[in-house]
Structure formats: structure tokens, C-alpha cells
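Need C-alpha cells for this chain, all 90 residues.
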Amino acid sequence: MKLEVSAPDDFVGSVISDLNSRRGKVLSMEVKPGGGQLIHAEVPLAKLFGYATDVRSLSQGRASFSMVFLEYSPVPPKVKEEILSHLGRF
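Here are the C-alpha cells for all 90 residues:
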């Protein structure tokens, strides 16, 4: 998924750290005219369930985000092994 997060300057570090923990790739950041940052990232959809609650918690309710479909891509080998192991097929 293509993700765009709008966050106040005080919470940008926490938001980026959370995106990285979700296997996200931060592509760019830009300063918003009224203050804050706009973060552009790509994150697997499977890791975004519950993100709305988490991003609000990280930013005391002051960050928002939007996401759109970007592309299908293969699952990394390590994640594939975890999924198959969880299903009892590996």
C-alpha cells in the first residue's frame, strides 16, 4: 500500500519508527506549510490492520493518514516461512 501520514514535528520520529517496525519503506518526507511533516511510505497491507488506532496513540490524536493500493509483490522468504510454519505446512 502507498501510505501518506501527516504528523506534527514532535511525533515524526515515533511515526517513522512504527512504520519501520511494520516492514514499511519511508520514501520521502516534506514539510507542510502550516507546520508538521508529510511522510510518504510503502507498507504491506497485512501490517496495517489497526494502524489508525496506533498512529493516533503515537501522536496523541494529532496525526492522520491515507492509503491507496500500490502493487502486489511477493512475500519475503523469511515471512513466507513464518506463514507456512504457522499454518503447519513447513
